[in-house]
Every structure is written in C-alpha cells, then in structure tokens.
Write the structure tokens for this entry.
Amino acid sequence: MIIKKCFFTFLLSVGLLMSGCSGRVELNELLIVSAIGVDIKEDNTAVHFQVVNAGGSAGGQGGAPAGASGGAVYTYSVTGKTVYEAVEKASTILPRKLLFSHVTCIVVGEEYARQKGIDGLFDFLERNHGIRDSMLMLVAKESTAKNILTIYTPIFKNPAESLRNRVKQSAAATGVAEGVQEKEVINWIHGQYRDPVIQGVERVEFDNQADDTQNLQNIDANNKTFRITGLAYFKKDKMKGWYNTKQTRGWAIINSRAHEMFILSHKCNHSKGYVGSLIKGIKTDVTPKVHDGQLSYKINVKGKAILQEVTCKINVGSPKELKKIEFQIEEELTKELTSVIDKAQSKKLDVFGFGKLLYDNHPEMWRKYKKDWAEHFSDANVKTTVNITLETVGARVESIHEQ
Amino acid sequence: MNHNLNHWQLSLIVFSFIMGSSLLMAPNLTSFFSGQDAWISMILAVIIGFLINILWLFLLKRYQFQSIFALNELTAGKIMGTAVNITIVFYALHLAAYVIRNLSNFMIANVIPESNPWTYQIMIILLAVYTTYYGFNNIARVSEFLNPWMFLLFIGSLLLTINKFEFSNLKPVFDQKFVYIAQGAYSTTGFPFIEIILLGSVFVYVKQKEKLTKSYMAGLLWGGAVLIITVIAVVGVQGDYMVKRQSYPTYELMRNISVVSILERIEVLITVVWIFGILVKVVVCLFAAVSGLKHISGHTSMRVFLLPCAILIWSMANHIHENMMEFTDFVGQNWTMWWFTLYAVIVIFLIAGIMRGKDKQAGT
Amino acid sequence: MTHPFFKRKRHISQKETSRSEEKLPVSADIHIDLAKIKELLGNSIDVKVIEFLHAPVKFAVCYIEGMVNKQQIELSIFEPIKRWQQTDCKKKPEELIHQLETAAPLYTYRHFDEITAAVLKGHAAIFVDRVDAVYCLAIEMWQARGVEEPQSQTMVRGPREGFVETLQTNTTLIRRRINTPSLRFNLSEVGKITKTTVLIAYLDGIVDQDVLTEVKERLKNINTDKVFESGMIEELIDENGYSPFPVFQSSERPDVAAAALTEGKVVIMFEGTPFVLITPTTFISFFQAAEDYYHHFDLSTFIRLIRILSFIISISLPAAFIAFTTFHHELIPTSLLVSLGAQREGVPFPAFVEALVMETIFEVLREAGIRMPRPIGSAVSIVGAIVIGESAVAAGLVSPAVVIVVSLTAISSFVSPYYGFSGAARLLRFILMVLAATTGIFGMIFFLFGLIIHLCALTSMGKPYFTPLAPFQSGQQKDSILRFPLWWTQTKLYSKWSKKS
C-alpha cells in the first residue's frame, strides 16, 4: 500500500516536473503584435511588425515606473526571403518574444501585391497555432505598407485598432461590411475558383511628421488618419488594379455583403441639388441559368430606403414624387452594378463567385465550363433588377428648398 | 468496489464514448474524401454503426448479457476462448494508447506547442486509474453529473456559430461520387462505432437488463446525431476546402465564434468537452482490459492490474508511431478493418455458440 | 447491512484493559464503603463526603462540589431523613431511602465502578449502613452558559437560540421544536479517560435504519482516550480518511438539527460542546442554510446559486488568473491584455509568486483576526488594507490585478455557511494555483475532473456523497440546488414527476 502510494506520487511529480513549466511566458516578457505589414524590397520580403507598448498605452496605475513610457506602439522592420525567415531574423532585433494571437490586420504594399503576389504569405499565417485567420487584409494604395504602419493616430492609441474600426465604419460608404478577412481570401482563390478582392487603405494627407507623438498635439486630424478606398482586384494572387467607390458598392451588393445600411447621394433629375438616402435591408438573389449553351445570370436586388437629405426643389410630401425618387435610387444602384460587372467582365476576372454559383446549382455544366472559365465568364449575360421601397422620409416632410 | 450501473448511466456513457474522440476528428475524416457531402457520409456511418451494434446486442441478449470474457470461453472452448480474451485485452489497451496519443497530438499541435506531450498523457492516465480504482460505478456517476453540462456547453457553442452558417457551403448536394462518400463513411465507422463493443464487458453489471438494449441504442443514436450536426456545422460555416486541410476542424470552428465581443475567444470550452469524452473512453478501455485480465488470471480483485496496464498504455502511446502523420495515416486506412476483425471473430463464435445450443447453458 | 466500507483499524475496538476496581461490590459496612469511595476518588478538595455517623441509621452522602444542587440535597435528602430519624419507631435501614422527597430519578448501584461514574457525573451518592447497595440521586446542576445567539452561524431571519455545552439543555431545545413522541435519544459514552457522554438523536419511524445501526456500531468501536469536541469524533468515525471534504455537518443551531431529524438523519450530540454532528450528509447540503426555508423561494434559489458560484470562484479564480496571464494570452481580449501588461511592467516576480504571496498573507491575516484580542482589531484591519493593499502596489511589489483577484477570492470564501467546507476550498485553491502555474488551464481542468471523481467516490455513512446529483434522483431535486416552493409537493407536476423517480 505504501509502495503503491509512493509510486503514484512519483509518477505525478514526474509528470509535473517533466513539463518544466514550459510554455509559460509572463506578460512582461511578451510583445503583442497588433499589425503586420509586408513590402517588397529588392525581390525580398520586408516585414513590419507593429507592436504594442503596454506601458505607454494603458492608462492604468502601473507598478514602479520602469521605462513605462513612450509611444503607444512601435514598428520594427525586418527583411527576409519569406515571412517566416523575417520572423526568425526579427528575434535578433526584438527585445521580447512575439505574440501573434492579437494581430488585427495585415497590410500588403501595392508593389508587393503586384509583383510577388500574396500567396507566399498564407502558409505561415495558417500553420501557426496562435494566429487567427479572421484578421483583416488590406492593400496600401500607391504606397508601401511601412507608410501605413508608421503613423500615430488620435482617439485610438493603437493604430491597428483604429484601422479595424475604420473598416467597420466604412461599411456605411463602401458597403463592404466587416472588411475582407484572410480566410475568405484563401477560400476564394483556392476553394471557390474565383478572384479575390481586398480593401485598400491610404493616408489622407501625407506628412512626414506623423510618425512622432508630438504630432498628436496638433488639432488638425487629417494628416494623421487613414482612408479606406475601393477594392483592389487580383488575378488569382497577383494584383491587377483598383475599383472605384461605385464599383466597390456594386460588388458589395452582388456579394450580399451590404446587408446593413449604406448611404447614397445622387443628383436630382430636373433641378439643381442632391437627394441623399440611407439604404438598408438589402437582399440580393443571383440565379444562374444555362439556355442553349448561353450562360446567363439574373441578379435581383431588394431594399428599403430612408430619405436623409433633399436639397432640390421637389415636393417631398407627394407620393408621386417619392415614387420618382425611388426610381432614381434604383437607377443609381443599377448604374453601380453594371459598372462593376462590365469592368469585371472586361478584365475577365470572376470576382463575384459566379463560378461557384454555377457549381452549386448545375454541377455538370460547371464541369464543362471549368477549363476556360474566364472566357465563359466574360461572355455571360448578366441582367440586374433593382427594387427599392422608400420607407420613411425622416423627421421632416417639406424641405426648405421646396419653395 | 462497486460496479453497478443503471440504464440511464449506461446510455450516458455510450453517448460520451461516441462523442469523445470523434468530436474533433470526425469532420476531418469524412470531408477528406467526400468534400461538401461529408454529412451524408456521416449519416451513412451512423446507420452502419447502428446495424453493427444491433446485431451485437441481439447476440448478447441471447446469452442474457453475461460478461463477454466468460462467453468467449463458453462458446469457443477454453484455449481459443482465452486467446480471444487476451486479444480483447490487447485491443483495449491499444485503443486507449491511441486515444491518449490523439489528445497529446492535439495539445501540441494547436494549443501549447512548447509543452511536453508526456504531461497530458500522464495526467489523463492518472485520472483514468483513479477512477477505475473505485469501480465502474464511479465513472458512471461522474458522467451522469457532467454529461448534461458538457452537452449544453457543446450545443451552446455550436449555436453561437450559427450566424456564420452558409447553406451554400453544403451545395451542391449529392454531387460527389458515391465511392467517395462511402470512403468517408468507412473511416468514421470504425472510429467510434465498432470500438464500442468494448462495453460488452460492462453489461453484466447493469441493473435493469430489460431496458439495456433501448438505452444503449438511444445513447448511440443520440451520439450519432450530435456528430452529424457537428459535421454539418463545421462544413457549413467554413467550407469544405478549409476543412479538408485543417488538422482539427471543430477547434477551428470554435475560433470563429464572435457574437458579442466578450464571447470571442472561447475555444477552450470545446477542449473541455473533448477531454471529458476522452476520459470516459480511456476509462472504459482500461476497465475492459483490467476485467479481462482479472478473468483470465482468476484473481479476486482487479486493482492489481491497474498500474501495469497504465504503464503499458503510456509506453504504447509514445512508441508505436513515431510522428503525427504516421499515426493519422494508420488510423485513416486501417482502423475500421482492424476492429472489424475482432468484431467478426467474436460474432462468429457467438453465433456458433447459439447454433450449438450453448446459450441455454449460459443461464444467469 | 453492516458494510464492508468501514474497515479502518482504528475503529476496531481492542480489548479493554480491565481495571481492578471494576466489579468491586458494595459491602454492608458503611465505614468500609466510605473508605473505599474516598480512596477511589482521591483526596480532591472538591469531593465532599457528608457523614451522619451518629444518627440511628448511619448514612453518608458523597458528591462533588459544584456539580450538584446543594440546596436540593438539603431539602430533599437531609430534611426528610432527619425528620424520619427523629421519629420514635423502629427504623429499618432499607426504609431510609424511601424518605426522600424528590423529583429526580434515583438509581441503585451495587458496584463501585458504577458509583464512581455516577458521582463524577454530578449525582449524589447515598451510603446507608447495613445496606449493600448505594443509591444515587441525579441532581446535577452546574454553572453553564445561557442560551444565546450562536456566533458561528448567523442568519438574518430565524431563531436566535443556540446549543450550549450542557446536554440537558440541548435536548430540551430540540424537544421543544419537535413535539412528536417518536423523538428518541440514545445514550452512549466515548473516550477511555474522558468518558464523554454522547447522545444519538433520531426520529423513530422516519430515520434510515441502516444509518442508525452504523452510527451506533461506529461509536461503540471508537478506541480513543480523550474526546473534547465533536470534531475529534468526526475524524474518528469518518470512513474516507484523506479527503478534504467534510462528511459530517456540524451545527450550533437547534433548528438546523431539528430539520435534519425530520429528514431522517441522525444527530449526534456531545457533552461539553455546542456543536452537534448531523449525518449522513451530501455535498449539496453544505450549500444549504436553514435560512433558505425562512425566506421566499425565489430569493433562496438565487442565493443558493450565488453560494455555488462563490465556491467555484474561491477555488479557481487565482489559478485561472495565473493560467490565463502566463499560458493562454490569446483568450484575453486585446485591450485587457494591454492594461494587464502595463500593470506588470515594473513587477519583479512572476504572477504565480505574486498570487501565492498575497494568498499566504491573507491567510495569515485571517488567522490573526480570529485570535487577536478586541482592542487591537482596528490596527490589524488598517495594516491589512492600507499597508498590504495600497502600499505594496505602489511600491511595485505586486500588480493591482492580483490584489483584486485575491480579495475577491477571499470574500467569496466567506459565503459558505459552514467553516469546515470553506477550509476544503482554501486547501484546494493552493493546489490549483500550483497546477495552473505549471501546466496552464489544462492542468486545472484535469484537477477539477479529478475532484469530481473524488467527490463521486466519497460516501457518508454508506450513502453516496454526491446524491442527488449523481446518482440522479429526480424526486429529490426539489431541494438540492434550486429551492422549489413549499407548496410544490401539492401540484400535479410534482406528483407526475415523483412517480417517475
């Protein structure tokens, strides 16, 4: 009995000691990476890690001050042949261990996306156990990722968080709710045979002093902020060009991303001025049809609108006028849809997932068309129908411009 | 040392046994071959498992649910019977070793890579030995207490992922060739549904034997239903391309939960459910092995065999397969056939026994 | 059924050592008897022998000063006997004892071991010349504490009477609450040197007969010298030696004891301590307070859930904190992680050492708080709060998050109504902290599973400890975690439900 107990205790302690407390890292031995940037540098990959400086960003009462000041984030840049080699080299310049589980976004420089293609990034990001695949992907428009990751932003101490919130907010204007996540991009390229699109980001005003915290004392916020631009379209994994805002909205509608509200403002037909409305509850239905060897898609969009601004001379109180406004909104939306479809078809890039739709509904047809899908896609006949109901006119009935 | 069970505890143990290992492995095994029709192969696997177990229960019922070790000796004669019993003991230890290896693989690959796999293996073996020390009654009560919570946890976390569910990920339905679907079903049938024949060593202790068949089957179907729902959720939320490539898809599914900002990173919950299922499975295997050894050796108490079995399981878990891919490969290709052989051998002996009229001899 | 559960060696009684004065009979000569009794009881100053050797019938009274009601001796014994002795008729020695006018019971003993035992219990022994028996009158009275509010188990609403150290008062307190004739008290004695009186109380007809026989059996077989408090007996008749969880419930309140009796439990009462033992217990009963029945059912259910929650917090919160901040950084939201990191910036020790040191300091403070004299109470609270809490943080020795965690844990550990149970939580907390610091949250999960396995294996007087959760008895659920209304047993739902179980 005694021997048995001794043996058990021995086994237990062996188990515990064997672990050697491995895997434990104290919080003050970690560097929390909040954003990763990738650029091309003479055919190698330059990786930028934006890390959080806990002492400078949190407002809490810390321990005895021990270097616990300074900027909220810092960006380190390393160059290597692949991302993982850059991580390896980073361990020689970084003072602490990198923690990847809180990365909010990865910014790819435009040059890198055009020349090298984004496929090389994915394997490290997927295989590492700590990285979550729901992080946002962004392309730095006409600049490098380093430019994006080296400014201090007001209101949010952590610029990566500021970026992520911006993406959420921009859903109102661009329609792409929740941005484009890394796992979606992987799924699109390799799982669903379509070409990905990624949101773009640029700095509103370029200012060399933005990388200094002193700049935060200045009240003018435009030189320390980002703008989320339209989508960048890729052919498989290499970037080819940019969509403008209207086309981005069209893409969002077709892909059923814009289910919540976005804002539209268009010219009045007969007089000077603009009508602005808020569109919500957008539901899109895309049905593929094959008829005599001719591929056709029918896109059906339904939504509700709320009037927000009327600066032209129309009689808001009359139902006929409202019907006209509805018609105008529908026209506007149809224009956006057709512009994006035309551009996609002219470039022969299936960014909408029409191929997958065909596979879902008519798998045998898809197997026939699979080989030259780009050609078939650009020849397809796409018809759009938009149906918007104007729900309310807001807090006022008659506009001041009606006189 | 108390081994009594009632029928409700039995069905809960069957349920945890089935959910145990398969929760993390089933989507991978099925969708690897059948893509977005993984759920169809899962249904097929459940049906096949159901039929196999019905036959098993029917045969055992003819013998009044005696201990399977005694039955082997009765139907196959002393020498052959002892040989079959030794084989059953080996199979039980082997399965326990594989289950434990699976757990430590998961921990190292996905959760804490820097730690030592031995830690998790030793902890779970110690828990299993501790439970079996007090008799089978102990694990029956533990599972009776914990099962509702584990079930709620799991279903709750599945429900939280519903907002990301896209039905188009499951389309086109029935597109894959039937061969692939059957291949997906083949690997999953062995993985929990045939291994559960080890519970034959426990039937003799169940109190109300007339309700045994119904509760057993209820537990089996319920576990199968949960597995089917899991596969549907995993493939529906993530898409079959991603699922095929991931090592443990259910864990990745739980990573996608983001309903309210506080409920965002709770994949540890699924790990708890899985560890519980693995514990039940290991205890059942250990119990089967130890009672087999007790029967073969004629010893009075089964506790003597606990520690040697534990050490055997530990060393088998580490040394049979050198690396993770060899392990997965072996399981994917051979497991169903391996267990089906044992099943077929015992079933043939039982049928032969019935034909020779030995079931009348079984009595009580 | 006497179980095989109960096999510990210490419960197997050894042969009692025979004492030489055991079966010494009383002789008819009073002088020999008095000499014998004085020799047995020694020359203690409190042993008084009042001799009346010049009366026509010689008699003597022996008692222990301070333990008998001396007034009653004079009124009931001396007065009537004196009156009788002064009458003229022929007096037979056997008639002396019939002169007593008393309501107290009178026992007749013929052997000295019984006499000494009776005298030591507070009886007055009456020796009569030429009678070979000694009569003992049970007129014990001593200074006892009055019935006051129990301090260890306070409640907001409920009676404010608590048990005292005298068995007679305690039995009265119970008797007043249960007025049925089926209430029985069984006498027993433990302790070779202390010979403490033990009463086993039960309601005949409702009590579980197996438990009753088992309790009697175990009390008979205890082999120990001294028993001063019920806690010592609790340890000796426990069948699971090494478990930190108590299997007996101890209470100082008569209403709790009475409620337990009506549920079919057995109450063991001891002379000399106000704490009685209630058995068999289950795990859930440590989360139930008697007060739950005196408040409305929804409030009681809510408070019970809070108790269970605080038990879980008091075991696992420091360990969870250590596990999350050292192993599982991905589980904490980003902004919380950043502020925790900022707090840890200047702190030299790892989180485990911090938490361990703070917990130990708190345990020291708690023990000091129990033992210290009143006047310096405020000094200790000042030391605890300001010096340790504030200044340690400001000096950079610990981070504020750890202080919050430790204080929350400490407060939660006071919620349990039973001190012995929160003791188990305190011990387990330290083990969990060690496990969390070495293996992260999975070590904690394994330990918690091990704990549940352990709880399912415990038995209390042969009944499983974890009833009614496992094995699940749906009929009992109305009272375990949620308290259903008292009129629930009359609803149709309940009758359908209890028919199933």
Summary: Chain B touches chain A through 27 residues (CB under 8 Å). Residues 7-362 of chain B form a domain with the Amino acid/polyamine transporter I fold (CATH 1.20.1740.10). Chain B is about 75% helix and 0% strand. The longest helix of chain B spans residues 78-111.
